[in-house]
Amino acid sequence: MITLAPEEIAQFRSQLVDSPEALAALDAIEDCKGNLEAATQLIAVETTDAEVSLRGDSNFLEKLAEKLSNIICQEEFDELMTGVLTAAIATLAASGNIPIALATPVVIYVAKIGKKQFCETVKPEP
User: What's the CA gap between 53 and 34, in Å, rounded?
Assistant: First the structure.
């Protein structure tokens, strides 16, 4: 389980100030006491019904990230993961056809564990 400290949430909030959907996702993360997994499930329930089969799964965030790994693990995504994450979130949302609010915890998750490590351990979706 990955948990964000209040200071980390505040740092992401300052980076994502121009994205109301990303800020709403950070509110959900804050409401879940920094628990990225719980917040992702909450956001999924609020923003989409496309991932119903994954809801309630204790590894929902990890499985969602794996499902999007074909986008995340592209070389072009590397530079999006450096600095402000707004572009990475927007790109993942558009390419993965998911709401920005749902892309936000996925990008934060990958940033926390490291994109390189994530892509080395992920089982890509066929």
Answer: 24
51 Cα distance to chain centroid: 14
CA distance 99 to 15: 18
Separation of CA 21 from chain center: 12
What are the tens digits of pLDDT across the range 5-48? Answer: 999 999 999 999 999 999 999 999 999 999 999 999 889 888 87
* pLDDT single digits (tens) 97-111: 999 999 999 999 999
Question: pTM of the entire structure?
Answer: 0.90
User: 90 to each of 55, 96, 105, how far by Cα in Å?
Assistant: 23, 10, 12
CA distances from 9 to 13, 14, 70, 83 (A): 6, 9, 27, 15
Q: Where are the alpha helices (DSSP H) in the chain?
A: 6-15, 20-31, 36-47, 60-67, 69-72, 76-80, 86-96, 100-113, 115-121
